[in-house]
Every structure is written in structure tokens, then in C-alpha cells.
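PROTEIN DESIGN WORKSHEET
SECTION A - STRUCTURE
LENGTH: 148
C-ALPHA CELLS:
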């Protein structure tokens, strides 16, 4: 019964994360370090499951856990309704909650988000090719933009 509950919870989380991923207009850039950590994490899940499992349900739980891990990692980015990121337990910040963004351009685009109170929320990095799309989404939602 416990296995069934865990499976249902994982499926629910995956469905929620998938809905966020489908909303993405501009996904955040993933660094090589993040990619290596994700691969090591997946490898760790597989090794742990292989050596500790006694039932086929545990393999299913491992696969769902890995899928959840990947979906949560892929999710950050910009949507028409706001910014998606796991920050302080909140996943979606609507544009009405964001007072301004600072954008700096180097080898990538760094977007720093600030709350209406002025405090920094988070920074996200994006591919250079997405610059126009990011600017258009921010302007469409009346977010104040500061270029650095």
C-alpha cells in the first residue's frame, strides 16, 4: 500500500511539473556543472535502487523519482504569465509580483528578478539567441527593464 501511495504522489508531481514545462516560452540555460550533477544524481538513484530493491515496484518508484528529478531541473524559465523557478518554496512568480528585472549580456543573458518590495528573488541565465524573446515578454507584461 505504501508503494502505491508513493507512486501516486510521484505521478502527481510529474503532472504538475509537466504543466509548468509546457508553459515555458524561454527555458533557463543549464551549465555543464548542473548537467554533470544531474547525471551523477541519476546514476546514484540507479545504483541505490539496484542494490537495495527487492520488488519490481521499487524499480518503478526509481524511474518515477528520476523523472521527477529531471522535470524539476528542466522547469526553470520564463512564461507569458511569469517566471518559473524553485525559490523559497514557490515555483511560479507572476509578473505582477515582479517590480523590475536587470538584464546583463555577456556570453549569455543574465536576468535578475526583483520583488515589488525591491528585494532580489533570483538570477537566471539564458542563451543569447533568446534575448529578443525575453525583452518582448517582459515589455508585454509591463515589467521594468534595466540593462546593465
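SECTION B - SEQUENCE
RESIDUE ASSIGNMENT:
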Amino acid at each position: 500500500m505504501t508503494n502505491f501511495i508513493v507512486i501516486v504522489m510521484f505521478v502527481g508531481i510529474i503532472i504538475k511539473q509537466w504543466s509548468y514545462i509546457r508553459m515555458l516560452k524561454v527555458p533557463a540555460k543549464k551549465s555543464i556543472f548542473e548537467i554533470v550533477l544531474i547525471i551523477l544524481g541519476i546514476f546514484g538513484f540507479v545504483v541505490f535502487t539496484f542494490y537495495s530493491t527487492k520488488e519490481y515496484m521499487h524499480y518503478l518508484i526509481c524511474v518515477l523519482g528520476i523523472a521527477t528529478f529531471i522535470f524539476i531541473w528542466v522547469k526553470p524559465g520564463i512564461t507569458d504569465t511569469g517566471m518559473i523557478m524553485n525559490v523559497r518554496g514557490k515555483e511560479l512568480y507572476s509578473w505582477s509580483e515582479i517590480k523590475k528585472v536587470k538584464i546583463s549580456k555577456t556570453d549569455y543573458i543574465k536576468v535578475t528578478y526583483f520583488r515589488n518590495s525591491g528585494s532580489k528573488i533570483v538570477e537566471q541565465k539564458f542563451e543569447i539567441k533568446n534575448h529578443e524573446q525575453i525583452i518582448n515578454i517582459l515589455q508585454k507584461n509591463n515589467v521594468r527593464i534595466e540593462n546593465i
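SECTION C - NOTES
The CA atoms of residues 26 and 148 lie 20 Å apart.
The first helix runs from residue 2 to 23.
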